[in-house]
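Hi P.,

Sorry for the delay on this. The queue was packed all week, but I finally got your sequence through. Input first:
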Amino acid sequence: MLIPSRKIGQSIVINNNVVVKVVGRDGDPIKLGGQAPPEVAVHREEVQRGMDAGRPAGGASALRAALGFTLVEIMVVVAIIGLLAAIAVPNFLRSREFSQLNIIASNLRILESAKEQYAMEYKLATSAPVTENDLLPYLKANQPIKPVAQETYTFVDVGTLITATLTQGTLAGKTGPFTVTSF
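Then the structure:
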């Protein structure tokens, strides 16, 4: 074993292409810097021993990274995802119900407008009966309104507001029946 004495800033050259330089001294340990061509593998002795024993370079952290995550880490991630889902799902459902309620309000406005156009065109009295088929020519593409929350629309006469009735439960805390003035 060669034991040269070097001062800070001095170097040792090995095989004309590996340079080891004394960079500094921090108490008892000496800080060394090394420079070698890419084809020369340079590792600390304990890392090299680990590599020779079949472990990846980088010590324990590299070994852990090569093996993957622990069960506890996976459980923590799953718990966090579950917590986020528990917060997000009710908000999503509530916003979906409000959107459906807004669509019902819009549908009622469209139907009331179509009913008014129909009544004006045919000069109908307020007691004249109206059906959904009467309003089709005044709706987009002559198609009936499509329900968004399993609601049914009730047509009575020109003077009575069209109502939307939910067939199942409530929507955004409201039970109905709904008219244009309900919103």
